[in-house]
Amino acid sequence: MTKPRLYSGMQPSADSLQAGNYIGALLQWRDLQDSYDAFFSVVDLHALTQPNDPAALREKTRRTAAQYIAAGIEPSRSTLYVQSHVRAHAELAWILSTITGFGEAGRMTQFKDKSQRYGSDATSVGLFTYPVLMAADILLYQTEVVPVGDDQKQHVELTRDLAERFNSRYGQTFTVPKPVIQKDTARIYDLQNPTSKMSKSSESDAGVLWLLDEPSKTAKKIMRAVTDAEGSVRFDREEKPGVSNLLTIYSALTGRSIEQLESEYAGRGYGDFKKGLAEVVVEEFGPVRERVLALLDDPAELDRILAANAAKADEVADATLSDVYDKVGL
Ligand code: ADP
Ligand code: NA
């Protein structure tokens, strides 16, 4: 029996991924590989919507791919490739942009937020059409399921609308995908500012647990994480966001429930709790980091893996794109 198709991706927007990317995306992707025919992309075309040094972008793309593999995405089982290696993404995006309403694209809240922050001169047309490129990413592979964070839900809704619109105008062409929104319990916050999301694009290093940090640095950041004056290890997102965030990370990486952890640390101080968590994170990230370094040490082998996987992706994407060209009269 063929497995349902799944697509997801991440931008190569930093040299290292952070704990939220690992817990909220990579760990889930790793497990989804069993039940889905999964396509995982490093979306470097999307990354061009931010200013980038060319050599640095190329390096971030390779490092992001290496981190996917090191975290357990198996390139022999899933299709793990770099978006720009498959030309059909940009081509389908153009065609989809011709059936996307200007107002429809303008309603995307991520665009509204980002363009407001950048100002109109620093806001590119590419940032505006970003969700259309994302729709092309998904629709090229006849994707059924798209695991995303809730900030991307609106973009998947647009993707569904475009698929349905194209199908009704030109005849059945695209599978209409369904978003699978990650559980709120998988959301990780900044260690120094535990009400804002941990992010690759965070300005301050102290609050971010980088997957590729040296183990001693990881431990230090956890020992210095913001907590509160109460002194008891208890989950309460409103009153104790710092401790709750640390509990979330602890639970996600060990499979122990929050309740279990609360009773394990009952009557013990935050020092003990943080030491326990630091051990867990270092044990998890350490071997991933070693594997990343080994992969980056053999660039020819990494290139070979990425080229073979791009060829697999290309085959599926080309079939869809040819059908689309045919339907629209190209
Ligand atoms: P970032 O903010 O680090 O640039 P992206 O927006 O590129 O992250 O998201 C890549 C993936 O990682 C998405 O699936 C997203 O849901 C997940 N992700 C990012 N940050 C977090 C977080 N703090 N907690 C949980 N998941 C996250
Ligand atoms: Na981002």
Automatic annotation (TrEMBL):
EC top class named in words: ligase
Gene3D superfamilies: HUPs, Tyrosyl-Transfer RNA Synthetase
Catalytic activity: tRNA(Trp) + L-tryptophan + ATP = L-tryptophyl-tRNA(Trp) + AMP + diphosphate + H(+)
GO MF, any single term: tryptophan-tRNA ligase activity
Compartments in which it is found: Cytoplasm
'KMSKS' region (motif): residue ranges: 197-201
Superkingdom field: Bacteria
Predominant cellular place of this UniProt entry's protein: cytoplasm
UniProt-annotated binding residues for ATP: 11-13, 20-21, 149-151, 188, 197-201
Record-listed E.C. numbers: 6.1.1.2
Alphabetic keyword roster: Aminoacyl-tRNA synthetase, ATP-binding, Cytoplasm, Ligase, Nucleotide-binding, Protein biosynthesis
Binding residues annotated for L-tryptophan, in chain numbering: 137
Membership in a protein family: Belongs to the class-I aminoacyl-tRNA synthetase family.
Function (record text): Catalyzes the attachment of tryptophan to tRNA(Trp).
Record text on subunit structure and interactions: Homodimer.
UniProt protein name: Tryptophan--tRNA ligase
The organism of origin for this protein: Microbacterium istanbulense
